[in-house]
């Protein structure tokens, strides 16, 4: 029996984490969404051990962020007796922009893109981690899992010859370092931090535009050259099953690592 907090739980991998973890009735799962009104699939789960809370992991108004994160853990604390075992930092934005760093129309456009990715993916995750540390400290498991991406791995970026997705990749590379820093700061307390890539997962709900479909075909060709056995994106179900296996076996000795759903540097 464990207690989990999952951010970005309205859809995609976050929703799948909630679905799999709450299937065990003894678990308690706090599903954090930006807005309950756009979390219909999560509401449909309708499980007694799933508690849906509204939270944006970032807020332009820094004071609001502080207030929100002070309020939320109190709500969580009431329902858990003040203890949480696992935090799964899943929420993120990820566009598939092909614009390379040398080709943004203006310096301001570079700043806008990179700062927005950094604000949500890096800072938002840091805020969420800090907000729930007191509850995690009181628990006995103390695991903080952060969803990252192989697109933040320099060797894979070179192998795929992928100069695009700059804002996303840079924000996630920074996030990996944030995880390593948290890990070092809290290793002495028995915390286990892990940055994990879910693989290439079919989570997109919106149909691809013709332009996106073309880019995706080129991407698949590159993947096929790199990994001839690659069969295409895996399902959220398979990805979450594989990540949970890694998460459960990860220990404090290897805290702060950046690995894939295989528990290694095998990104696909
Ligand atoms: N899918 C893949 O192939 C893949 C590959 C590598 C890494 N990842 C990583 O895996 C994680 C999940 O990916 P996914 O494909 O499931 O993504 P997704 O379908 O786009 O879902 C992302 C979730 O994050 C939430 N979110 C975004 N900004 C937020 C904010 N400011 N505050 C709170 N929640 C916010 C979204 O909320 P709304 O529903 O309100 O928009 C959504 O529920 C991400 O960290 C992603 O970078 C995915």
Automatic annotation (TrEMBL):
<dbReference type="InterPro" id="IPR052184">
    <property type="entry name" value="SDR_enzymes"/>
</dbReference>
<feature type="domain" description="Ketoreductase">
    <location>
        <begin position="2"/>
        <end position="199"/>
    </location>
</feature>
<dbReference type="InterPro" id="IPR002347">
    <property type="entry name" value="SDR_fam"/>
</dbReference>
<dbReference type="Pfam" id="PF00106">
    <property type="entry name" value="adh_short"/>
</dbReference>
<dbReference type="GO" id="GO:0016616">
    <property type="term" value="F:oxidoreductase activity, acting on the CH-OH group of donors, NAD or NADP as acceptor"/>
</dbReference>
<dbReference type="InterPro" id="IPR057326">
    <property type="entry name" value="KR_dom"/>
</dbReference>
<dbReference type="InterPro" id="IPR036291">
    <property type="entry name" value="NAD(P)-bd_dom_sf"/>
</dbReference>
<protein>
    <recommendedName>
        <fullName>Ketoreductase domain-containing protein</fullName>
    </recommendedName>
</protein>
């Amino acid at each position: 029996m464990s207690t989990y907090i999952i951010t970005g739980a309205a859809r995609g991998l976050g929703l799948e984490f909630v679905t799999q973890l709450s299937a065990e009735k003894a678990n308690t799962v706090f599903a954090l969404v930006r807005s309950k009104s756009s979390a219909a699939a999560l509401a449909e789960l309708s499980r007694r051990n799933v508690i849906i809370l509204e939270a944006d992991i970032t807020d332009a108004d820094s004071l609001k962020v502080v207030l929100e994160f002070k309020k939320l853990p109190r709500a969580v604390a009431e329902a858990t007796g003040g203890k949480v075992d696992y935090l799964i930092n899943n929420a993120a934005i990820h566009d598939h922009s092909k614009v390379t760093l040398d080709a943004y129309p203006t310096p301001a456009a570079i700043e806008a893109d990179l700062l927005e990715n950094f604000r949500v993916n890096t800072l938002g995750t840091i805020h969420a981690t800090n907000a729930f540390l007191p509850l995690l400290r009181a628990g006995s498991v103390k695991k903080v899992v952060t969803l990252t991406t192989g697109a933040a791995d320099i060797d894979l970026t070179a192998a795929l010859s992928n100069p695009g997705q700059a804002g996303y990749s840079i924000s996630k590379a920074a996030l990996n370092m944030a995880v390593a820093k948290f890990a070092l700061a809290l290793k002495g307390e028995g915390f286990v931090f892990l940055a994990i890539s879910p693989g290439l997962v079919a989570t997109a709900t919106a149909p691809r535009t013709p332009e996106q479909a073309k880019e995706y075909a080129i991407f698949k060709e590159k993947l096929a050259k790199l990994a001839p056995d690659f069969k295409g994106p895996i399902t959220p179900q398979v990805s979450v099953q594989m990540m949970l296996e890694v998460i459960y076996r990860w220990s404090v000795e290897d805290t702060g690592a950046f690995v894939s759903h295989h528990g290694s540097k095998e990104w696909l």
